[in-house]
Amino acid sequence: MKVHVDMSICLLHGQCVIAAPEIFSFDDAGGLVWVAEIDEVQAGDAEAASDACPEQAIVLG
């Protein structure tokens, strides 16, 4: 599964980091980073992170 974050609408609330810390994190500069390709074991966590995003900026495919 592919993971993408639309950074044009992401406001860095960090709900994805809380929901799926193995997929999403903040770098030292405070920017959001994520794993672009995940396996099916991580799919549930990615979906939970997507659901938790206030801006719905996470795109899974």
Question: Which structural traits does this protein have?
Answer:
25% helix, globular, 20% strand, two-stranded antiparallel sheet, 61 residues, alpha+beta, 4 strands, single chain, 2 helices
Summarize the structure.
By secondary structure, the chain is of the alpha+beta class. It has helices at residues 15-19, 43-52, and strands at 3-5, 24-26, 32-34, 58-60. The strands form 2 sheets. It has a two-stranded antiparallel ribbon. Strands 2-3 form a two-stranded antiparallel sheet.
Task: Map the helices and strands.
Layout: E1 3-5, H1 15-19, E2 24-26, E3 32-34, H2 43-52, E4 58-60
Antiparallel strand pairs: 1-4, 2-3
Could you explain how this protein is built, in words?
This protein has 61 residues and is α+β, with helices and mostly antiparallel strands. It has a single domain (3-60), classed as Alpha-Beta Plaits (2-Layer Sandwich), CATH 3.30.70.20. The chain has helices spanning 15-19, 43-52, and strands at residues 3-5, 24-26, 32-34, 58-60. The protein is globular, with a radius of gyration of 10 Å.
Strand order of the largest sheet: 1-4
Distance between the termini: 6 Å
Which structural class do you get from the secondary structure elements? alpha+beta
CATH class: Alpha Beta
Provide a count of the helices: 2
Tell me the overall shape. globular
**Count the strands?**
4
Low-confidence stretches: none
Looking at the overall shape, the CATH architecture is 2-Layer Sandwich
In total, how many domains does the architecture comprise?
Answer: 1
Q: Biggest β-sheet, characterized?
A: 2 strands, antiparallel
Relative helix content: 10-25%
Kindly identify the CATH topology. Alpha-Beta Plaits
Element pattern in H and E: EHEEHE
Oligomer: single chain
